[in-house]
Amino acid sequence: MGKKKKDTGSVSTKKSHVKKTDPMAAPAAVSAQNYPTTDLRAALRADPDLYLGGIHPDDTPGYPGKGKKDAPALTAALGTILSAWQERLYAESKVKESPDRNVLVILQGMDTSGKSGVVRHVFGLVDPQGIKIHAFKQPTKEELEHDFLWRIRRQVPGPGMIGIFDRSQYEDVLVVRVDGLVEPHVWENRFEAINEFELDLARSGTKLIKCFLHITPQEQQARLLDRLSDSTKHWKYSPGDVAARSQWNEYMEAYNDLLVRCSTDVAPWYVIPANNKWYRNWAVASLLLEHLQEMAPQWPEADFDVAEQIAAVSNSLAA
Ligand code: AMP
Ligand code: MG
């Protein structure tokens, strides 16, 4: 990325002999100051009158570039800024009086919609130590013995972390509904249970970013055929994926319902048109950036006397 070290925006702390380098004050294309701002949250938020059939997965709302060719530079720039915010969030949680905040990104979408691609391309941009990823599969016997939120609660990220759920509590109003795994009144009651759960999370400091990766059945077909034509991708394919394709309309109806019923002020849903992988990655990274900017975590003040410690370290060298 041709890093230039000059003008890194050194900032004096209150103890004036200490300088710190703030990557968010870095110059050129990667600065938070000149990165094109958009309000993607407003553009992508699921409204109460959402109709998925009216949102085309080829669309690219809010994208500041001219198409695919601009995406690598934009996403790389975002990565640098995201890394800096992520480090601040993590650092903030390490001090005693910290506000105990974290971020939880929920990724939902049909098979091949790009949930794991987003994990790789977006969250691969930041320090893995600050990231906690969990992919929810078919529940185990033990998980089925508990309430459907039991396994979800156990994976909520700790303070300072960015958690990512690849599938989530929403499977319990999706596959469970479409495949008739429980009675309708059981999954019906889950919308409210999920909203209450998410409200509790938000009140205890979790910023939820819920992303539905929206693709067309034609795009899915192309991606599945691509998997089948390459032996290095066979591990990603499951013959069961064809069954879910034949229930496409039922899934879209189930998605439409949950996007409307569980898009709340504390935990809105975002519909990401995801036929274009470059847009999908840019959009999820941008949403994460907008939320981190709003949270605005700060570098914690040292809880020791910096001058005293400089003297102590200097003297220890002399000894
Ligand atoms: P994948 O994400 O492709 O590895 O597939 C995981 C599978 O687990 C998908 O077919 C999901 O529908 C399924 N799954 C996840 N959560 C649940 C759940 N609560 N009940 C039933 N199936 C689930
Ligand atoms: Mg799969």
Provide a quick synopsis of the model.
This protein has 319 residues and is of the alpha/beta class. The chain has helices spanning 40-44, 71-92, 115-121, 141-144, 150-153, 175-178, 184-203, 217-228, 240-246, 248-261, 277-295, 306-318; strands at residues 11-12, 19-20, 102-109, 131-135, 162-166, 206-214, 269-273.
Please provide a written account of the structure.
- The protein has a single domain (38-313), classed as P-loop containing nucleotide triphosphate hydrolases (Rossmann fold, 3-Layer(aba) Sandwich), CATH 3.40.50.
- It contains twelve helices and seven strands.
- The longest helix has 22 residues, at 71-92.
- It is 41% helix and 11% strand.
- It has 319 residues and is of the alpha/beta class.
- Strand 1 and strand 2 form a beta hairpin.
- It is globular.
- The chain binds adenosine monophosphate and magnesium ion.
Which properties best describe this structure?
alpha/beta; Rossmann fold; five-stranded parallel beta sheet; two-stranded antiparallel ribbon; 41% helix; 11% strand; disordered N terminus; binds adenosine monophosphate; binds magnesium ion
